């Protein structure tokens, strides 16, 4: 006899971040059934150039976004496929007219300590997203959805990635071989302007890498440094290329 998956007790949640989430429903809403599976599309993601939004109330809000289970039969069994629909809404509760939100969704069970990712997700481009799952275990199942970035922030991040290949900041930490005195200099994939530099480029894979030459006596380029990221400087670089509104959207 097939095992029955108890989806009627599913706890619907929408999570804004891994540390902060808000519950958006206690019951499953019936839908019109499964849509046709797309051909050769495991995940379709739509990028949008949001030039029309002018304030933070227009961006996707996790607390107001809704999740519902679209099902075509009362009793679901292990091995059946279910469709979960997310409908994105802004901070005023209005339905979004475009897609592009960065979302994550999964089925989980506290009883069996199990979880499963969707078979595939479709961004419908109109503010709705369809996630398709195969039921893997019997009993109570929970739907967890997370809004990682609203679509407005995604468009800003995508623009920064395309226009700022050197948006990350790195430092080289040199140590004197005898005195252990340290000196920190900047590193990049481009040659430092008007400064002497150490060339650590790898000709085997055509990977350029340059660090400003240390000025401390006794520290040379062959005293290989420890490379680390400079988060504060990277944020400053990104901040200089984004408007105050865009920076606020990225933070959310």
TrEMBL record:
Q: Which domain of life is it from?
A: Eukaryota
Which Pfam families would you find in this protein's record? Neurexophilin (PF06312)
InterPro entries (alphabetical):
Ig-like_fold (IPR013783), Ig_E-set (IPR014756), NXPH/NXPE (IPR026845)
Gene3D superfamilies annotated for this entry?
Immunoglobulins
Q: Identify this protein by name.
A: NXPE family member 3
Q: Which PANTHER family match?
A: NXPE FAMILY MEMBER, NXPE FAMILY MEMBER 3
């Amino acid at each position: 006899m097939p095992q029955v998956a108890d989806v009627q007790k599913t706890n619907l949640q929408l999570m804004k971040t891994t540390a902060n989430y808000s519950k958006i429903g206690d019951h499953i809403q019936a839908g019109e059934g499964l849509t046709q599976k797309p051909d050769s599309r495991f995940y379709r993601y739509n990028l949008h150039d949001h030039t029309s939004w002018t304030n933070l109330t227009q961006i996707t809000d996790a607390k107001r976004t809704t999740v519902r289970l679209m099902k075509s039969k009362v009793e679901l069994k292990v091995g059946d496929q279910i469709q979960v629909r997310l409908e994105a809404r802004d901070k005023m509760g209005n339905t979004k007219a475009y897609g592009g939100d960065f979302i994550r969704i999964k089925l989980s069970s506290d009883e069996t300590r199990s979880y499963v990712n969707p078979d595939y997700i479709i961004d419908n481009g109109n503010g709705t997203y369809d996630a398709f799952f195969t039921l893997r275990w019997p009993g109570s199942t929970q739907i967890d959805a997370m809004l990682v970035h609203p679509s407005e922030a995604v468009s800003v991040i995508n623009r920064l990635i395309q226009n700022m290949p050197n948006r990350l900041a790195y430092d080289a930490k040199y140590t004197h071989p005898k005195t252990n005195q340290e000196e920190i200099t900047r590193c990049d994939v481009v040659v430092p302007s008007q400064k002497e530099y150490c060339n650590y480029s790898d000709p085997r894979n055509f990977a350029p890498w340059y660090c400003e030459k240390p000025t401390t006596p006794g520290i040379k380029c062959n005293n290989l440094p420890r490379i680390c990221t400079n988060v504060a400087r990277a944020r400053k670089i990104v901040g200089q290329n984004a408007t105050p509104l865009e920076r606020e959207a990225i933070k959310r």
